[in-house]
Amino acid sequence: MTSSILWAALLCIVGAAPAGAAELKPWTGGAAPRLELRELDGREHRLSDYRGSVVLVNFWATWCAPCRDEMPSIQRLKEQLSGKSFVVLAVNLDEPESRIRKFLAEMAVDFVVLLDPGKHAARAWNARVLPASFVVGTDGRIRYSLVGETRWDQDGVVDRISVLLPSKP
Asked: How many of the other CB atoms lie within 10 Å of CB of 24?
């Protein structure tokens, strides 16, 4: 089995999990890896640029059904926290820009979508199964991780993220 096939098989494992099954888990790993990627329009984004904000870093792909299923709830979370220091960075794993653009034209989301050609960021963040998400606190440290799909706009998740938000945006 080639490494590409093995990688794809590992990423698809979560697809069998029921929606909403994944839960935020307190992060016990080390510091947040560097994240420095560009979006479709070429603009560079660095995780360090968002110090002072809570950041949801979500690794996804268009072919990943659980990723597609959770995107509307990520958008609703972003809308619920509108006006607060909260940012979504959705990191796409090594797909052609044309495929991503087509997908985004059909999916009503307005958060930042970053490109991860070669999956270097995914490897650094140990995002082996999709979707893989990390909630980064205002200090730049990962506070929670989640492997698999969830409803990001459910009360428990919103409450955990809201506690991390600064008093003033």
From this structure: 18
> For residue 9, is it within any domain?
yes
Predicted TM-score (pTM) of this structure? 0.88
Range of the domain at 148: 3-164
Whether 169 maps to a domain, the answer reads no
Strands 86-93 and 112-116: parallel
Q: Is residue 101 part of a domain?
A: yes
- Only one residue has tokens 């989640």, namely 146
Report residue 71 as tokens: 């995107």
Let me know if residue 83 belongs to a domain.
yes
Q: How far is CA 74 from the centre of its chain?
A: 9
CATH number of the domain bearing residue 98 = 3.40.30.10
Give the chain's domain count. Answer: 1
Print pLDDT tens along the chain (169 aa).
444 433 443 444 434 344 444 789 999 888 899 999 999 999 999 999 999 999 999 999 999 999 999 999 999 999 999 999 999 999 999 999 999 999 999 998 999 999 999 999 999 999 999 999 999 999 999 999 999 999 999 999 999 999 999 886 5
- Return d(Cα 168, Cα 119) in angstroms, integer: 35
